[in-house]
Amino acid sequence: MMSEGPRSPRSPKSPKGTEMKDTGYCRIIVMGAPGVGKTAITVRYLTKRFIGEYCPTLESRYKYLTSVDDTDVQFEIIDTAGQPGEVMNERYAMLGDCFIYVYSLTDRDSFQQIETFYKIVEDKRKLSNNNGNFLCGVLVGNKSDLVHSREVSQRKGHELADVIGCKFHEVSASEGTHVDSISEIFHDAYREYKKTIGSNPKERRSSSGKKFKNAIQKVMRGGAPKRRTNSYS
User: Fold this and answer.
1) Is the pTM of this model over 0.90?
2) Within 13 A of 183's CA, how many CA atoms are on the CB side?
3) What is the pLDDT of residues 46-59, one digit of tens each?
4) Residue 6 lies in a domain
5) One GO MF term, please (predicted)?
6) Is 70 exceeded by the pLDDT of residue 230?
């Protein structure tokens, strides 16, 4: 099922006397297993509020105008239902400009499922000849406030982000002090999207299925794959 969600919050306006240098648009797909906090992260970004209860079977869409690096950006954010059906996730794969992959650091299974979500996006976009634009994403470990229940180390999050070529964040949607960090997730998604549309498709990083699978297995077993140079929040 799909829901338009609550009315989108008012978007911030440019200060009087100033002009934005550019304008942009980006459709972001928020993906992950049920219960990892996809909706909580999305709503925290849009409204600065935390919601603890929501319907996990509904897809919600939001439009939000904001500023990223002096660029006036119109976000369309699709908060997916989190269902594991491959057909539905293939549809999302073709809709998105950039993808936010969310797992709960208190749930190792949700971390392992990121491989499935990522590969669906990668494979579908390869088949469609969509310029190889399948690595535009941000990896997010949610529920960092639940330190005593942690099942996924921050190191493993960094390693997986290296493997799939994503920026990495650890946040807590329930903590008001993480509002700025959560905003950076969406801003990084736009920055990564801008990189893909400004690059040569032939130069984009592409991982073979076997190579990707081997690297993922190393992360899951605890072996550290060779790290790329990356900046993390």
Assistant:
1) no
2) 15
3) 999 988 766 666 78
4) no
5) GTP binding
6) no
